[in-house]
Write a structure and sequence with these properties.
With 469 residues, the protein is an alpha/beta fold. Helix 3 crosses helix 4. The protein is elongated, with a radius of gyration of 24 Å. It starts with 7 loop residues before the first strand and ends with a helix. The model has no long low-confidence stretch (mean pLDDT 92).
């Protein structure tokens, strides 16, 4: 599959930017960013036999303020909405967008759409709220989102665009994850079909860090930090008991980045279970056997499990939430119950402590790293919208802020590669076996099939978006 990072624009930029930046170097002021500035996606400079391409399949447009804008700030009405589950940093991003629009560009009409896409539907009764720098001044000090959020509604595209037209919005900032951004692309396509000049800019929010191409999603650092604190607490409980076992269940539906990095950060985790790596409970090389060996050797154990891990071991609910996500069976309680049953049958006394800090993590205030990241994401989203860019998300790639077409960013999820250095380092940190299954052929076949299915989904999605559907 060959990617295409070409960025769409509403038209020629003729309005000079009110931001006083430098056109040349040497005057100690930041310079404007040109549309001819790019960041490479692939930077494998060591593979001289297969050099990286230098076309739009590998070049991402650099983000930042342009010298000339598409929109006249006096004629701008901006809209902001937050969708999906909570994530640290939502208020930070809202604050950054409002302050940049108002203070940097002089935009005076900024509307906050309440409760996600549902705020566009009149029958729901949620009127937009006027946002000003004064109203958002301190919102970064609290978790959640001051605009409220909800799941679903993104499929009611025509009604959403009707609302955007009715409100006079000509630049829409949509903060949300994979499903939300796919919805925002459908909205942008409907806007284009109607011949409207409205910019749609996505700011990717996914605490699982599962959006491809970008270095990390906002809120991820905070989530790892909070998760690490939970692991530290459960380790204290486990080590203080006879055969103490601590279990921490963390977020990670399809991608185990939080569990993996929190395990690395804690230095106290002995088993890390993630969706990308299959495991079995029973048998001579199963998880329970290795847990028993760990207790015999050290007298305590700490287990970190991502919510999407081991779903093949449980009975599927066959249900989905309002966003279309499959509802997961509770792997955390399953592991706890299986451990309890296993050692009861062996008449071995154990003491289990179980923590699920998921909602506490999601509703947290950002740490300093994420706070900075959110501020810069919000600012760059505004710069992109003012320049008439559309159908893009703002992302950090190789420590540079770039414009990524939504169609490319949502093709498939970013996952922990079981053969990556990240997972290898996690295995070194935990000391767990490479595989906790009784047949390596089973694991190999499972991983192969998972990769094939993911690629097929991505190819189908690529075929759809390249046709403009």
């Amino acid at each position: 599959m060959k990617y295409d990072f070409t960025v769409e624009s509403l038209g020629e930029c003729k309005v000079h930017s009110p931001i006083e930046l430098s056109r040349t170097h040497g005057n100690f002021r930041a310079t404007y960013v040109k549309d001819t500035s790019f960041v490479r996606n692939q930077v494998n400079v060591f593979d001289t036999e297969n050099p990286d391409p230098t076309d739009m399949s590998n070049l991402m447009e650099k983000a930042g303020p342009r010298e000339y804008m598409y929109f006249n700030p006096a004629h701008v009405t901006a809209g902001i909405c937050t969708c999906g589950g909570l994530c640290p940093g939502l208020n930070d991003v809202i604050r950054a967008v409002v302050r940049c629009l108002w203070n940097r560009y002089g935009v005076r009409r900024i509307l906050g759409i309440q409760f996600g896409y549902n705020g566009f539907f009149k029958e729901e009764g949620y009127e937009p709220v006027e946002l000003t720098p004064e109203k958002v001044e301190d919102i970064h000090k609290i978790g959640g989102t001051v605009l409220g959020t909800s799941r679903g509604g993104g499929d009611r595209v025509a009604e959403i665009v009707d609302s955007i037209q009715r409100l006079g919005i000509n630049m829409m900032f949509i903060i949300g994850g994979d499903g939300t951004q796919r919805g925002s692309l459908d909205i942008a396509n409907e806007i284009q079909r109607r011949g409207l000049k409205i910019s749609v800019i996505g700011i990717p929010k996914t605490v699982d860090n599962d959006l491809q191409f970008i270095d990390r999603s906002f809120g991820f650092d905070t989530a790892v930090q909070k998760a690490t604190q939970a692991i530290t607490s459960v380790h204290m409980e486990a080590v203080s008991q006879i055969n103490g076992i601590g279990i921490v269940k963390l977020m990670g539906r399809e991608s185990g980045f939080i569990a993996t990095e929190a395990s690395l950060a804690s230095h106290e985790t002995n088993f890390c279970l993630i969706p990308e790596v299959p495991f079995e409970m029973d048998g001579p090389n199963g998880f329970l056997h290795h847990l028993e060996e760990r207790l015999a050797k050290r007298g305590h154990a700490v287990i970190v499990v991502a919510e999407g891990a081991g779903q093949e071991l449980l009975q599927s609910t066959n249900q989905t939430d309002a966003s279309g996500n499959k509802k997961l069976a509770d792997i955390g309680l399953f592991v706890k119950d299986q451990i309890t049953k296993y050692f009861a049958e062996k008449k071995t006394p154990i003491n289990i402590k179980y923590i699920d800090p998921s909602y506490e993590v999601r509703a947290s205030v950002t740490n300093s790293s994420d706070s900075i990241y959110c501020e810069r994401l919000g600012n760059n989203a505004v710069h992109a919208a003012m320049a008439g860019k559309t159908k893009i998300v703002i992302g950090l790639v190789h420590d540079k802020y770039v414009h990524i077409p939504i169609a490319m960013a949502t093709l498939k999820r970013n996952i922990v590669d079981p053969e990556s250095s990240l997972w290898r380092d996690c295995l070194d940190s935990t000391g767990q076996p490479v595989y906790m299954v009784n047949s390596i052929e089973t694991v190999t076949e499972t991983l192969k099939n998972n990769a094939i299915q993911a690629e097929k989904k991505a190819e189908a999605r690529f075929a759809k978006v390249t046709k403009g559907l």
